[in-house]
Design a protein that fits this description.
By secondary structure, the protein is an alpha/beta fold. Helix content is 39%, strand content 14%. It has 13 helices and 9 strands. The protein has a 7-stranded mixed sheet with strand order 5-4-3-6-7-9-8, with helices on both faces. The relative contact order is 0.13. The protein binds S-adenosylmethionine (SAM). The site of S-adenosylmethionine has 22 residues, from helix 2 and strand 4.
């Protein structure tokens, strides 16, 4: 999601300056695929600043209910203010979506008509320097979506072994120079603790040098890897998707938007598994996949943003949307 008019150089106080405009990714497609209708009950598992939630709320009036979760307390407070006109029909909670079963049990709300999961970080998190996600910032190397969590990116960078760092940078950043980068980090931290985003970006840039024809900043993949590791973004995602399905009505839909290949691979495999398809890619006589369909894949290929959307929201370029319907 992009907040129009916002620049990284502006100082930003979440509760005093309200974001002027929200541009949620593939908003029309989300509402259409979720089949939002008056009286419907929906979960936005990654509320962010509430852009998709607003679009859903518009469609479920009257008598609808939207349960919104985010692990980022600041984003949640923003969304709460933004969605105030709909406060009677929203329940907004500071929660990791992996706790969705518990949340729905506690609220006594199940089953629901649809669940949206818009993975990754929001523009707010990326663009506000103090959150420490951006390699362009002088801020502390933080990267926690949930600031009540203790471990930050600086802890990983300073405390992990060279092998552990290389492994994270390779697995979660798909970075070919992972070993070289890990070695450079270890050498640099022997002189002084690495605490700032810009400090790490410089270490990585020097380690990578001019290797490979890169169209992106040399630190992009390393920052992505650390962010995924700090927030344990991929851990248990497949289990969450399987659990989420159990809370849908028959015919209810799970819509997932992912932003990088590692996430999309998990979503794709989970959807294949839940719709009774083979995921092991072995010859049929050796396949041991359960092949028990509890859902159907609605999007045979992932949907991606069209040219018009990309012209106004270039950050959406890597988005892939997949939908699954409970059988
Ligand atoms: C791409 S943004 C969502 C933007 C939102 N759809 C909108 O229109 O404003 C992703 C959000 O999901 C949150 N998030 C990521 N992983 C989460 C998790 N496991 N549990 C809860 N929230 C999570 C992030 O804090 C971030 O605010």
């Amino acid at each position: 999601m992009v907040r129009v008019g916002w620049q990284a150089s502006m100082s930003y106080e979440p509760w005093n300056s309200f974001p002027p405009e929200h541009v949620p990714v593939m908003r029309e497609e989300v509402v259409r695929l979720l089949r939002c209708k008056p009286g419907g009950r929906f979960v936005d598992a990654t509320l962010g600043l509430g852009g998709h939630a607003w679009a859903i709320l518009e469609k479920i009036q009257p008598d609808g209910l939207l349960i919104g979760l985010d692990r980022d307390q600041e984003s949640l407070e923003y969304a709460r203010a933004y969605l105030r006109p709909y406060s009677d029909c929203t329940r907004l909670l500071h929660e990791n979506f992996k706790n969705l079963p518990l949340v729905l049990n506690n609220l006594g709300v199940k089953p629901v008509d649809g669940i949206l999961v818009d993975l990754g970080v929001s523009s707010y998190q990326l663009l506000v320097p103090e959150r420490g996600f951006s390699f362009q910032s002088e801020a502390m190397l933080d990267m926690r979506m949930d600031r009540t969590q203790r471990m930050t990116a600086a802890d990983l960078v300073n405390d992990l072994s060279r092998e552990q760092l290389a492994d994270i940078i390779y697995r979660f950043g798909e970075e070919r120079c992972s070993r070289r980068i890990a070695a450079a980090i270890v050498t640099a931290r022997e002189q002084a603790r690495i605490t700032r985003c810009s400090q790490l970006a410089e270490i990585v840039s020097r380690a990578v040098g001019g290797r490979g024809a890169r169209t992106i900043h040399p630190a992009t993949r390393t920052f992505q890897a650390l962010r995924i590791a700090v927030n344990q973004e991929l851990e248990g995602l497949d289990q969450f998707l399987a659990n989420a399905l159990q809370f849908l009505k028959t015919g209810g839909r799970l819509v997932v938007i992912s932003f990088h290949s590692l996430e999309d691979r998990i979503v794709k495999q989970s959807f294949r598994m839940l719709s009774g398809q083979c995921v092991c890619e072995r010859p049929p006589e050796l396949c041991t996949c359960p092949r028990q369909a509890v859902a159907q894949v609605v999007t045979s290929r992932p949907l991606t943003p069209g040219d018009a959307e990309l012209a106004t929201n270039p950050r959406a370029r890597s988005a892939k949307l997949r939908a699954l319907e409970r059988g």
